[in-house]
């Protein structure tokens, strides 16, 4: 099965994640998270929401003729961490990772670890950037790094080594391409949503409050 064909088969899963990001952006919790007004409720909702999308990523994968299943499980924790910080990223990653571990199989441990690391690393980037959402190019590079790490973990943990190498050789590149495409789409959407909310804030600002108002989400995130 050609790499491009496999990647295209994952587009439906990527579209579900994109629709999910749009759906949660319509809630008040999205605005609270953007303004860093974190509380137990909005953090729990984001963790459960993106954790569920990560589990969906596992079940919506495509099995290759050689055996491995390519999927976008790591994508949702990455988005969660970049958008909401380490608690949300780690929480979503734990849901997706622990679920993957109990699904079983020779790659259960490296796949679970990679998903957890994806969410936590995304949260670390959020902290490093002080809540400023990452650029689209930066998000793509981050996804590539995470999927390369995923492959390395598989090579280090799965035994025999020949089996690990065969799995990485057949599944590694399609997963990398799919997750990178997915995070580019998600980052583009989130950037536009942030800008949209910034424009709305400017329109709602009282006279004399400046072009974007005191509560302009766009300024606070950018």
What does this structure look like?
This protein is mainly alpha-helical and 222 residues long. The termini are far apart. The radius of gyration is 18 Å and the shape is globular. Strand 1 and strand 2 form a beta hairpin. A two-stranded antiparallel ribbon has the order 1-2. Mean pLDDT is 88; it is low at 210-222. It has one domain (3-221): Arp2/3 complex 21 kDa subunit ARPC3 (Orthogonal Bundle), CATH 1.10.1760. The protein is built from ten helices and two strands; from the N terminus they run ααααββαααααα. The longest helix has 44 residues, at 161-204. Helix content is 76%, strand content 2%. The protein has helices spanning 3-9, 11-25, 28-34, 40-59, 75-84, 86-103, 108-128, 136-157, 161-204, 217-221, and strands at residues 62-63, 69-70.
